[in-house]
């Protein structure tokens, strides 16, 4: 079974451009998490969904960030307009939650560089 | 605010030695404590996890020690190998549907 699939793996863009990161969940998983990883701040939770519904987006840094789950297996994270401080590795992770915590399965990440 | 504090930031260990990484948490309601391992260019992956009803859990060369009264837990890697070189994250959460809160990570290098 394929794991969590993220695209693109690398993105280099200029300040002010729109960036869209994509994530395909593991089949059967019902929770989706977007994390951002930087050297300074480690792994930060941006937003998470249960059963396609956004539960907590308090980690989204600004209104420039938005995330959607148009269906049960796919999610996008959009940054518009992008800024150099958004440069980071963005991970999505999925899990199956039925009661308990559930193991998180991470994708390989999307490395974003904003010039 | 940082709910899970991890130390050290980086660690160099000789092959065959013991690697020890420590974490402290603030929220006494946390009841699930996993460790994730991340290799360069990859996403983190679950290594081992513990719940507070036990003080220790061992899986192969990896052991979690848990001290509920001190609100601390640690990862011990026995007989460390160069293949263990990776970044290790501790995390904590509440049972149910709350997401994991991660420490900032420890970069482990095991040298021959």
Explain what the structure shows.
The complex is a heterodimer of chains A (115) and B (112). Chain A has 115 residues and is mainly beta. Chain A has no helices and 11 strands. The mean pLDDT of chain A is 93. With 112 residues, chain B is mainly beta. In chain B, strands 2, 4, 5, 9, 10 and 11 form a 6-stranded mixed beta sheet that branches. At the A-B interface, strand 4, strand 5 and strand 10 of A face strand 10 of B.
Helix-strand string of chain A? EEEEEEEEEEE
Largest sheet of chain A: 7 strands, mixed
Structural class of chain B: mainly beta
Please identify the structural class of chain A as seen in this structure. Answer: mainly beta
Could you estimate the helical fraction of the residues of chain A in percent?
Answer: under 10%
Quick tags:
heterodimer; A: 7-stranded mixed β-sheet; 4-stranded antiparallel β-sheet; 11 strands; globular; B: 112 residues; 6-stranded mixed β-sheet; 0% helix; 53% strand
Write a brief structural summary:
The complex is a heterodimer of chains A (115) and B (112). With 115 residues, chain A is mainly beta.
């Amino acid at each position: 079974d394929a794991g969590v699939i993220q695209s693109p793996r690398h993105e280099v863009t200029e300040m002010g451009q729109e960036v869209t990161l994509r994530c395909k969940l593991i089949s059967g998983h019902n929770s989706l998490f977007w994390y951002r990883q930087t050297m300074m701040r480690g792994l930060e939770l941006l937003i998470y969904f249960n059963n396609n519904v956004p539960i907590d987006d308090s980690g989204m840094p600004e209104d420039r960030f938005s995330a959607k789950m148009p269906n049960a297996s796919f999610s996008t994270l959009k940054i518009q307009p992008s800024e150099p401080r958004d440069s980071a590795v963005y991970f999505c992770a999925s899990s199956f939650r039925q009661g308990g915590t559930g193991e998180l399965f991470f994708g390989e990440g999307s490395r974003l560089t904003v010039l | 605010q940082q709910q899970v504090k991890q130390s050290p930031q980086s660690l160099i260990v000789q092959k065959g030695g013991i690697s020890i990484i420590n974490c402290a948490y603030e929220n006494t309601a946390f009841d699930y404590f996993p460790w994730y391992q991340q290799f360069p260019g990859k996403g983190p992956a679950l290594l081992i996890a513990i719940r507070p009803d036990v003080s220790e859990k061992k899986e192969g060369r990896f052991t979690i020690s848990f001290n509920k009264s001190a609100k601390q837990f640690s990862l011990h890697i026995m007989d460390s190998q160069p293949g263990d070189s990776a970044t290790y994250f501790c995390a904590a959460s509440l049972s149910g549907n709350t997401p994991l809160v991660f420490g900032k990570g420890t970069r482990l290098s095991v040298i021959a």
